[in-house]
Structures are given as structure tokens and as C-alpha cells.
Design brief:
Blueprint lengths: L9 H12 L5 H16 L2 E6 L6 E10 L2 E8 L4 E7 L6 H15 L4 H14 L6 H15 L8 E5 L2 H4 L5 H16 L1 H11 L5 E3 L12 E7 L7 E7 L4 H22 L1
Antiparallel strand pairs: 1-5, 1-8, 2-3, 3-4, 6-7, 7-8
Helix pairs in contact: 1-2, 2-9, 4-5
Length: about 270
Amino acid sequence: LLESSDFNNVEEIAAFKALEEHSQEGLKALLEQATALLSELSSYAGIVFTPRHNPLLKCIEFVTLNPHQLLVILISQSGHIENRIIPSKKELSAEQLASLSRYLSECMEGKTLDEALKAIQKEMSLQKNRFSAFATNMVQKSLEALQEKDDDAHTTLILKGHSNLLDHVDQIEELEKIRHLFDAIETKKTMISLLDSTSKAEGVQVFIGAENQYFDVSGCSLIASPYKSPDNKIIGALGPTNMEYRRVIPLVNYTSKIVSQLLKDRV
């Protein structure tokens, strides 16, 4: 995967090849290694961010827990499972639930949860005679319950080498700015819209402190690139506004490419 022409530094070539060799240790381990590697090679902070999980769906199932509660199970095409317990004022038979599950699964297969909710609402409104008011209400509650998620519930943030930023601090005021940035990163919400926009772009994106609301206060900049995965993950380097852009941009670009390829090879 690594071409000798990509980098001239022998240590960088060896480090990337080592990442390839450890690519089968699990997804989380691969992401942590890639983030740590980018931090080490750039001498700044390495960051990986995953926007909220919104997988393509495979099927939905209903299980009666008791006369007053139903368990709703949603399964994605990748095998991800979500489940919720909803109240039920009327008990449906196992056959009725199975029939409803099959019908809804056909409607939602290959769609995201938001898309499935709209499609099912439309379908059930067109075939009112096929479903009782109770069944329609139950389906609505089930999908809405599955849709209700905390903004950070499916957000993954890996930050490595943040102490590297302190090496670039020259004044007490700058140290305080860095601390504010750490607080913002750890809450995750500050980064969501910024990195979501990065995931929709192609290639490396550069966010310079003074030109971006997220980094203006901290005096930092972010060089980020999306890498190919079902969840549109992003990898990048975080550093001061005077960071070595010409050196770090190729590092971020290549790291995103190698991670994309390693994930593709795992499928």
C-alpha cells in the first residue's frame, strides 16, 4: 500500500508500514494507533471523530415482554442493534407481531432510520384499512423511540497527543486558551457541525483559528480529512495557527488514505 515516493523520511515510512502490520487487531485499536501515529509524526494532537451512527437498516422485530410492554429491536445491515421498550395497552399475538415485523422490514430495508420513518408513515396512511389504529400508533411510537438519541450517544472521539500542543505555548494567556479548547473538544458538541461538514467534503480541509469560530478563541487550527467508512469518520491534526501546514497536510492526507484502505481490506 505504501509507495516509497509518498514520503522521503525513513522513520515515517517505517511507522506507516507498522500501522499496516497491526491493522487486524480490531477497529478501535486501528483508529487509536492511526491517531497516535499522526500525533507522533506531526508533533501536534491527532484526532479521530465519528458523527452520529446512522446505519442502513435490515429489519425490525417486536417481542412481547408483558401485557403492558413491547421490546422493539432494530437491526442494521452491518449488524448494529438498537432496542427500546415501549408501552403497550393492548396485547398482540405472536403471529400479528411477526406479520407486522415482516411488512415493516420490507418497507425499511436499505434505508436510514429517518428515511424509514417517513416511508412507513406514508405507507400506513395509504393503507389505513390494513392496519388497526392501535397497530399504527404502536409502530409510530416504536420508530420515534428508536429515533430519540442523545447527540453524543453514538459519537466517537479519539484524541491523542494533546500534550503536544503545550509544547507550542509561549505565554500564560495561550495556555488558558488551550485549556478552553480541550474543554470544548471533550464535550464533543463543539466539534460536531464542523467535522460533519468535513465528512461531506473530499480531500483535506484546513480550518485556521482566526478564520473559524471553533478555533478563534484557542488560537489553534485543524487539518482534517474524511476517510472511507460506513460512518464517514474523520482524521486530523490539531495544532497552533502557525503549524507547519506544508508538512502536516500530506501526513493527514496519507493517513486518511491508508486507514480507508486498511478498513476496505478488513471487509
